[in-house]
Amino acid sequence: MADMLQVAKRELKIGFRNPWAYSFLALFSIFSLCLIFINSQNIVQGYSGTTGSMLSLILYLLPLMTLFLGSFSLTAEKEEGSWQLLSTYPLGTLSFIAGKYIGLSVVLITIVAFGYGVLGIVGQIAGTGFDFETYFLFLAFSVGLVLLFLAIAMIVGSLSRNRWQAMTNSVAIWFFLVVGWSTILIAILGSLPYLWIKPILVALTFVNPAELVRLFVVIKLGGGSVLGPEYYEWVNWVRQSSGTFLFLGVCIAWIVISMGLVYWIWERGRSRG
C-alpha cells in the first residue's frame, strides 16, 4: 500500500508538471464555456437535441485526451529508463500499476472538475446554468469516460514502445470506439439475421466503454425512447433502483479486467528482463 501511494504521489507531481495536462485543461475549460453558450440559447433540462449534441462533443474530447495522457505516461517510463531503475527496487508490479492508475485518475479528474467548475460558476453568474440533475449526470458521464478510457490507455502504453507508437495506437482506438462506432455497428448488424441483432448489440456495447457510458447517461436523462427497440431492456434495467449499482459493477469489472491485463504485460516483461 505504501509503495502504491508513493507511485501515485510521483505520478501526481509528473502529471501536474506535464504541459500536455495544462493544454487539455485550457481546452476543456474553453469547451465548458461553449456548453454554457449553447445552453443560453436553449435552456437544457433532461434529454434534448441540445443535450445529445453536448454529450457527443464531450465524447469526442475526453477519451482522446485520456488516451494520450495515460499512454504517454507509461511509454515515458520505458523511454526514459525510469522503469528499468524502479524494477531493481523491491517495488511490486501491482503497486506500480495501481499507483500509476490512481495518480493519473486524480490528474484527469482534476482537469474535468476544473472545467465543470468554470461551467457552474459562469452559468450561475450568467443565469444560464444547467439544472442540478443534468449537471451531475454530465459530470458523471465525463468521469466515467476518464476512468474507463484510462484503463485502455494503460493497455496501449504497456504495448507501445515509444510515445509516437502510443499516439498512433491511441488515435486508432479513439477513432474505432468513438468516431467510427456507429458505422461499424451498421455494417456488422446489417449483415446478420434479425434474431442475432439484439444479443450481439448488447455484447458489442459492453466491449465499448464510450457507448456503455453514453447509453447509461442518455437513459438517466430521460432519452431512452430515442435509442430504439433494441435497447428496450437496457432502458428497463437502468431505470430500476438497482440499475446504477449494476452499471457501476460493470464499470469496475471493466477496469479490473483491463488492469489485470496491464499487470500481466508488465510482469511478463519484468520476468524477461
Walk me through the structure.
- This protein is an all-alpha fold.
- Helix content is 83%, strand content 0%.
- The relative contact order is 0.13.
- The chain is globular, with a radius of gyration of 20 Å.
- The protein is built from 12 helices and no strands.
Features:
273 residues, single chain, mainly alpha
What separation lies between the terminal Cα atoms?
25 Å
- Name the structural class: mainly alpha
What general outline do the C-alpha atoms trace? globular
- Strand proportion, as a percent range, falls in under 5%
What is the helical fraction, as a range of percent? over 70%
Order of helices and strands: HHHHHHHHHHHH
Give the low-confidence spans. Answer: none
Supply Rg: 20 Å
Major sheet attributes: none
Taking all residues together, what is the mean pLDDT? 80
**What is the subunit organization of this protein?**
single chain
The number of helical elements comes to 12
How does the SSE layout of this entry go?
Layout: H1 2-17, H2 19-41, H3 49-79, H4 82-86, H5 93-126, H6 132-159, H7 163-179, H8 181-189, H9 194-207, H10 209-220, H11 232-239, H12 243-271
Helix pairs in contact: 1-5, 2-3, 2-5, 3-5, 3-6, 3-7, 5-6, 5-12, 6-7, 6-10, 6-12, 10-11, 11-12
